[in-house]
Design a protein that fits this description.
The protein is α/β, with parallel strands linked by helices and about 475 residues long. About 40% of the residues lie in helices and about 15% in strands. The structure holds glutamine (GLN). The site of glutamine has 13 residues, from loops. Glutamine (GLN) binds near residues 177 and 312.
Length: about 475
Amino acid sequence: MELYQLTIHELQEKIKKGEVTATQVTQSVFERIDAVEGKVHSYIRLMKDEALATAAKADEEIKNGNIKPLTGIPIALKDIVCTKGIPTTCGSHILHNFVPPYNATVVEKLRDAGAIFVGKANMDEFAMGSSTETSYFGPTRNPWDLERIPGGSSGGSAAAVAADECIASIGSDTGGSIRQPAALCGIVGLKPTYGRVSRFGLIAFASSLDQIGPFTKDVEDCAIMMNVLAGYDPRESTSVKEDVPDYRQFAGRDIKGWKIGIPKEYFVEGIDPEVNTAIKNAIAVIEQSGGKCVDISLPHTQYCLAVYYIIAPAEACSNLARYDGVKYGFRAADARDLLDMYKKTRMQGFGAEVKRRIMIGTYALSAGYYDAYYKKASQVRALIKKDFEEAFKKCDVIMTPTTPTAAFKIGEKTDDPLQMYLSDIFTISTNLAGIPGISVPCGFTSGGLPVGVQFLAGHFEEGKLIQIASAYEKNANIEKRRPAL
Ligand code: GLN
C-alpha cells in the first residue's frame, strides 16, 4: 500500500509510532496528484508549497511528542470555504480573483488540529448543481469512470478522496452536495445537523439549509473529522451550544434492538433497478446486524423538491446580491456608468445556472408572489419537518437510497435542469428538516459504479449515524476496490 491510499486512523498509527513523517505522507499525496489530477481535475488550486511547509513544522511537533488529531493528514477544502490570503472562487468567474482576508472557522479548526491543506477543490458554481459541471473552471471527472460526473456540488472534494488525491476533505451540503457525490464516488460523506458545524467563512448559498461536513474513506475517519469540525462558534449566529460527544466512541458499537425506518415514499418508480438491489441487500445486512426494519411514512416527501426549489433560490438571490463588482471579485471593464457596471458584471460574472436561480428566487420573493410561493413553501417545509418528528417516534434511524441512480455521463443532464434537480430527490428533505444524514458505500452496479446508502437521524444525533454506518460497513464487508486510474 502507498501512503496516499491509507485512512486517517491508519496514518495516525504510523505517525505515532514514528514509522512515517508528515512530510513523507504529504509528498506521497502530491506524487499521486501529479499522476492522476490531469485526468480527474479535482482541484481548482493546489497548495503544495504551503502543504510541505506545514508538514515540515508538523514533523518538528511530532518530534516533541505533540501529536494532534489530524497532525500530518493531507486534507482538501471545497473552494467555498474562505482561506486567508489564498484565492477562494466558489467555482465562479465573479470570484475568480477573490482573496479572503480571514479564514472560515472550519479552516482554523482543521489547522489547529494539525491538518495539512492540499488545495481548494472544484465545485459547481456557488454550489448550485449535482454534477460539478457548472464550475467556471471546467468539470471534475468521476475517478471510477472518467466519462461520468462525480456528483456535485462538492464533486472535487469527493473525487479527490476517491482518487487518493487527499486523505479526507471538506464539502458543503445544501440539498445533497456532500451525500450525493459521496455515493457516486464510493466514499463516506456526512451532512451534520443544521447548527452543528459553524458556517462562518462559508460562502453562502441558501443560509437556512447550508452545512459543512466531511468526506472520508471510512466511517471511523468520518468520526475523527466530526470531532474536529463540530461545536459552537460565537461568530456564527445559527451555530448551536450543544455538547460535542467523542464521535469516535460510536464507531464499532452494535445496533442490536434498533428500529430502522424504511420510508415507503423513497422506494418508488424511477430508482435504477441496480441501485434498488444494492439498497435491498443493505437492508438485509442491517437486519442481520440486529436492527429491525419497520415501515414508516414521510407523507410530504412529494413536495420536497418543489419546496427546495423555491426556498433555496430565494435565499440565494438575496445572498448573491452582494456580488456587484464594487468591493471585490470580477468587474466588467467596459461600463458606461454605475448601473451599467452592475449589469455587465453580473451578466458576465455569473454562469447560466446561477442566473436561473437568481431569477427564480427574485420571482418567488417579489411583491404579489411572495405569499403564493415563498410563504407557502415555508409552510410546507414545516410539515416536512413534522413528518420526520413523527417518524422518529417509531424508529431510531431512517434508511434510504442516497441517489436514484449511479453516476451519469458528463453532458447527459446539462440541457435539462429538472432532470439534474431530480438527482437530489432523496437528500433534499434532510436539509429542509435540518437533520443529519450520512451516505456510506453499499456496493457497485454491474458496470462498476459505486452506490451509496443513506442513514438519517434526529437533530444532533450524528453519533447514531456513525454507529449504524460503522456497523453496516463492518458487517456488509463491501469488496475493497480502487478506481483504475
Ligand atoms: N444539487 C442541489 C442544487 O443544485 C444541491 C446543491 C447543494 O447541496 N449545494 O441546489
